[in-house]
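Could you help me review a protein record that somebody else here produced? My question to you is simply how this chain folds and whether the C-alpha cells agree. Thanks in advance; the entry in question is below:
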Amino acid sequence: MQERLFETRLDKGQRKAAGKHLKEYFTLPSRIASKTAMAELAATKMTPGYVPSEVQTHQAPSSKVERHAIAKSEIEVLAMRLNILHRIYMELIDDQQRELWDLLYDPRYFRKDEAVMQMMQIYSTNTYYGIKNKLLGIIHDHFGDGY
C-alpha cells in the first residue's frame, strides 16, 4: 500500500478526473481490443505505393499508412495507462480501497455512495469518504489533473 506524502484535499475537478481514470480501468481492455482490430483492418487495406504530398491542406491523416501508425501509437498509450492502473489496483492500494473501486467505479453498475457504503458495511460517512479520498488521491498522484 502506498501512503501519500501530503494529504491534500482534491477539488471537485480533480476528484472527477480521478474518478474517470478509475472507471477507465474497466473499459480500457475493450477499447484496446477495438482499436487493435481497427488498426489491423486498416493495415490490410493499405496500398504500398503511397507518396506523401508536399502540402497537406487539412489536419486529418493523409494516408492509410499514417492512420495505421497513429492508431498503433494510441494503442500503446492506452496499454501504458492500463498497466499503471493495474499496478495501482494490485500493489498500491489496500483491500478496502480495492473493494470501493470495484463497487463504485465499475461502469456496468450505477451505484451511489450510499449503496456502496451499505454493501461495504461502513456506517460512518467520515470513514467511507476517507477511504474514497485516499483512493482518489493515489490516482491523482499518478495521473495528475487532466483526463
User: Anything to note?
Assistant: The chain has five helices and no strands. The radius of gyration is 20 Å. The helical segments are 12-44, 64-92, 95-105, 113-120, 125-143.
